[in-house]
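Exercise 7. Given the encoded structure of a 157-residue chain, write a plausible sequence.
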């Protein structure tokens, strides 16, 4: 059952959630009937979700680009807010694909202030320099086809 319209996030609220949240979860179809669910850092630009990852997620998305992404905040029911996106992923396979993406540079710049020092490293914000390497390290652009949002703080008490 879809969320009631009065609980939906406005476009500005969705942008705020997506730009402030550190983690998302992406569900991909693994080999056979298994679902692979993984938390990842991410960027938000042009209504699309970007993440840099490796391994099974990339292999899964190459085989089947259909995925679901969840970004949510808070833990208690009356405070929950979030967004679920269903859509397709595009694996940016090389530097040319990265350079041809119109929003990836914005995401690279976003990651500097958002994640600076997150692994105990130097906390000076800087552009994310990650690029396609090896067989499986890749940027992925997730293109939502359906979005469901909610903000339980809007519930009438």
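Solution.
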């Amino acid at each position: 059952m879809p969320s009631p319209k009065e609980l939906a996030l406005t476009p500005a609220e969705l942008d705020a959630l997506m730009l402030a949240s550190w983690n998302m979860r992406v569900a991909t179809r693994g080999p056979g009937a298994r679902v692979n669910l993984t938390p990842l850092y991410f960027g938000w630009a042009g209504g699309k979700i970007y993440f840099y990852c490796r391994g099974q997620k990339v292999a899964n998305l190459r085989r089947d680009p259909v995925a679901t992404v969840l970004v949510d905040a808070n833990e208690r029911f009356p405070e929950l807010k979030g967004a679920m996106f269903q859509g397709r992923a595009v694996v940016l396979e090389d530097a040319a694909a990265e350079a041809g993406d119109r929003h990836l540079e914005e995401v690279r710049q976003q990651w500097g202030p958002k994640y600076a020092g997150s692994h105990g490293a130097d906390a000076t914000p800087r552009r994310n320099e990650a690029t396609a390497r090896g067989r499986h390290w890749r940027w992925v652009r997730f293109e939502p086809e359906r979005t469901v949002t909610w903000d339980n703080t809007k519930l009438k008490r």
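Remark. The first strand starts at residue 23 and ends at 29. Students should compare their own answers with the one above.
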